[in-house]
Amino acid sequence: MEKNSREPLAERMRPKDLDSFIGQRQLLGKGKPLRLIIDSGYLPSLILWGPPGCGKTSLARILAELFNYSFHSFSAVVSGIRELKELFLRLERETSHKNIVFIDEIHRFNKAQQDAFLPYVERGVITLIGTTTLNPSFSIVSPLLSRMKVLVLKGLKDDEITELLRKALTDKINGYGDLKIKYSEEILSVIASYSEGDGRAALNMLEMLVESEMAEGDTPAAEMLAVELSESAGGRENREITLELERLKELFQGKVPDYDRDGEAHYNLISALHKSIRGSDPDAALYWLARMLEGGEDPLYIARRLIRVAMEDVGLADPNALSIAVNAKEALHFMGMPEGDLALAETVIYLATAPKSNAVYTAYSKAKKDAMEYASTPVPLYLRNPVTSVMRKAGYGKGYMYPHDYPNRVVAQDYFPEKMGKRKYYNPTGYGYEKTLSRRIEWWQEKKGKS
Fold it and tell me: How far apart are CA 251 and CA 186, in angstroms?
């Protein structure tokens, strides 16, 4: 790689072997899953599941080198299944079956397209390595997933990011080691924090910072580039720049949170919001709400989830919770964003601080189970409505006891199908309004026993 290459820094710094690969010790350490695969000498088909910039593509290329396999790279975003099938047929005819077919973002292929890989994986024509940022349990078809080993990669730690940045600053061939660059550990730490575990993002930030510092001064950026391309290596080495924290903050002050509304983060964040409310932590709940809204989540999706939280985790311990959640949805419809964000924030705080009960949720779950088991059980005749004379002659409504005709508006009467017998689903807690409901139910039971 020549020093004056305009290839992005992240691509130039891509590791070529395991010694230069940073991170994923949980896979590559002694006795860990990927290390065992390497030591065994047998490479199965793999799904590399992890966030952006954690080394999935680099790892696949390194494995091809280690096992001496041919490497055929495709992206599910731009490649078609016909193109892949043509490759599979050629590889089956011409090679010794030591071929890695690498599919970046394999989850973007639909189920029918993913099925096309199956016969070639089964016959060993190809070793398939696919990368995905989504949970493969939901994004990869079961027949294909069962024939592949899933390896979970993690975002890089801050110290691993700073190690990567130091390498880029000292590498004289692929990085900026031929420049005199002054920098502080603090600025590397800030870049690591900004990148949120994404090594590629960190290198992109460093590249933008260095290039912006080099362009500082009277020489226009385009002219400087022309000079740079014509200068000797010694000319570059004579440059001296300082990476300033203020410049970094200027460049990335409007940094947009990394948020994929259709990806794993979407489900993880809404889960964190829901569980924070359930755990009665309004501050954590507000944080996760802000993460989602500032990341571009559909506020109505959040509103719908808050309505569910009100029903599932607050329930009748505070009947007002459902009204407040529904009103927040209506406020969003009326006001839109960004003004509607406070309606959601108010609801999140209310739900998090409300008394909690899942008694309605558990009661309905039990009732639903019985409803499925006794789906064909007939309604007792006395509970049926005798709309016509024919129905009355058939016994519809006969023997029904009208509660308003009895003292205290209560009468002992079985409302379940005869085959089932009496069931108990709803058990109110002793929290919030359910204290009142519990006393009321006890009162009814007492009166029914005397009727």
Answer: 16
pLDDT > 60? residue 299: yes
304 and 242 in a common domain: no
Predicted confidence at residue 118, as pLDDT, reads 92
310 shares a domain with 282? yes
Among 44-48, 379-383, 386-390, top mean pLDDT goes to 44-48
Q: How confident is the model at residue 261 (pLDDT cuts 50, 70, 90)?
A: low
Give the mean pLDDT of the chain: 87
Query: Based on the structure, what is the number of domains in the chain?
Result: 4
Angle at 100 between CA 96 and CA 103, to 5 degrees: 150
Query: pLDDT at residue 263 above 80?
Result: no
Contacts of 278 (CB under 8 A, 6+ apart): 309, 313, 356
**Predicted pLDDT at 240:** 80
**CB distance 317 to 392 below 8 Å:** no
| C-alpha neighbours within 13 Å on the C-beta side of residue 223 | 5
Q: Supply the DSSP string of 124-192, one letter for each residue.
A: TS-EEEEEESS-HHHHS-HHHHTTSEEEE--PPPHHHHHHHHHHHHH-TTTSSTTSEEE--HHHHHHHH
Instruction: State the CATH number of the domain containing residue 201.
Output: 1.10.8.60
Query: Do residues 204 and 9 touch, judged by C-beta distance below 8 A?
Result: yes
- Please count the CA atoms within 13 angstroms of the CA of 253 that sit on its side-chain side: 5
Question: Is 282 a member of any domain?
Answer: yes
pLDDT at 227: 47
The pair phi, psi for residue 7, each rounded to 5°, is: -65, 140
* 44 shares its domain with 72: yes
pTM beyond cutoff 0.90 = no
Q: Is residue 367 part of a domain?
A: no
Q: Is residue 199 part of a domain?
A: yes
**132, 152, 172 - which closes a domain:** 152
